[in-house]
Amino acid sequence: GAVVSQHPSWVICKSGTSVKIECRSLDFQATTMFWYRQFPKQSLMLMATSNEGSKATYEQGVEKDKFLINHASLTLSTLTVTSAHPEDSSFYICSAREGRGYNEQFFGPGTRLTVL
Amino acid sequence: GQNIDQPTEMTATEGAIVQINCTYQTSGFNGLFWYQQHAGEAPTFLSYNVLDGLEEKGRFSSFLSRSKGYSYLLLKELQMKDSASYLCAGMDSNYQLIWGAGTKLIIKP
């Protein structure tokens, strides 16, 4: 299957700093990328959907100004957590899909963010 | 509203068979996915059903009944490595995945 990479795998930062997470589709063009967060023992929570070249569509309750998403190319999307706080500590996972209809979502390995 | 229901946790014995059920309500329907997620890792794709019936893939099979809004994942010849969470997700009319909370499967020797 297709490969999606995420970088970094884990990051520890101080409260108030910003953290950027990269998501890349390595062997296909990702028309759509999704960003999820997952708290321990809970299911995936979709944060936002981004289509290449368009502004991201955020789910209700997700702060656009806090979680900046950029999908500048068909192989790269970034999530920046601005002014991170301890409650932002979570497992962030991206997934990518080729095309706009049904197509399997391929998940990146995830990024574990810990904010001190 | 949209909703996916699946059991929180199940326990089974190595070598046995287990069936994980999922009921769904989505706005429109474009298929039902099953993913496996080991602790601390991202989900990996297991199966996709859009038509009624059983899809078999090795030790794993997935069933769908659209009229009942119901699916199940069947795991045969259970191995210890099958201990994981199994996520059911329905795809709505906008091709968005609606995720269940996941079923944690514990395999005992």
Please tally the helical runs of chain B, counting DSSP H or I stretches of 4 or more residues.
Answer: 0
Shape of chain A: globular
Q: Helices and strands of chain B, in N-to-C order?
A: EEEEEEEEEEE
- Protein structure class of chain A: mainly beta
Written as H for each helix and E for each strand, in order along the chain, the element string of chain A is EEEEEEEEEEE
Mean pLDDT of chain B: 94
Largest sheet of chain B: 6 strands, mixed
Notes on the protein architecture:
The complex is a heterodimer of chains A (116) and B (109). By secondary structure, chain A is an all-beta fold. Chain A contains no helices and 11 strands. Chain B has 109 residues and is mostly beta strands. Chain B contains no helices and 11 strands. In chain B, the strands form 2 sheets. In chain B, strands 2, 4, 5, 9, 10 and 11 form a 6-stranded mixed β-sheet that branches. In chain B, strands 1-3-8-7-6 form a 5-stranded antiparallel β-sheet, with no helix packed on it. The mean pLDDT of chain B is 94. Classes of the chains: A mainly beta (116), B mainly beta (109).
